[in-house]
Amino acid sequence: MLARMVRDPLFVFFLAGCALFAAYSALQSRSAQPVHLSAETRTALITSFESAAGRPANADDIARIERDYIADELLFRDALDNGLHLTDTTVRGRLVEEMRLRITGLLPDPSDEQLVNYYAENTGRYFSEPALTFEHVYFRSQPVDGQSIRARLQGGEPVAGEPFAQGQAFPGYGRSIIRGMFGQPFTAAVWAAPPGEWSGPFQSSQGWHYVYPTERVPEALLPFDAVRDQVENDYLFAVIQQAVDQRVAELEQRYEVRIER
Fold first, then answer.
1. How many structural domains does the chain have?
2. 159, 209 Cβ separation under 8 angstroms
3. Fewest beta carbons within 10 Å, which of 84, 100, 163, 185?
4. pTM strictly above 0.85
């Protein structure tokens, strides 16, 4: 009789169902870990409350602290069960950033030798940007007699133009500052304008300008002492990024990665 039961398809189906149910139950038991508020965490929460409130916690306060902790933990687990960490970009971003920090942990302060070596290997990052000194005559709208105004300026005749909020002279302004004030087309035009003579009118995001460049300062390598803080930040970021890249390479061996194009 037992042999007939074993050969019976229904019996085989029943065993398969039992196996699936057992596997599902095992997974559920592992995922449904008890919500536990340890005595250490409870004490720390109460201490934090008392420090912020400036008074001892009473029974109602402690009950609320315990209830809030349990509620937060349950809601957190519910969020994971609902895949919020997979669909909410803000949550994903914070989790990813936290993992980046955890990969290396708290890094020790780099030595001066490490920083100087990093500076020497990456000097291309530590140049001052080129700068320009120039004057301008400003008009809100394109002048109808543009060529004659430029001829008058070139001949030394004063031309008032219109008031400009930032003034008429720009001593030693960096390229990025000029681009931010006037836009890229104007920046390219004023940089190409010959020094010591009036050029224009050039259009900017503000209006129209006749420009008189006087001095160009080329980019220059900044000394290590002037950029030490930036070098340290760049060095620590590079150390973290190298560790992250190594960890990602390890994870790529554990997961199938597909890119659709």
1. 2
2. no
3. 163
4. no
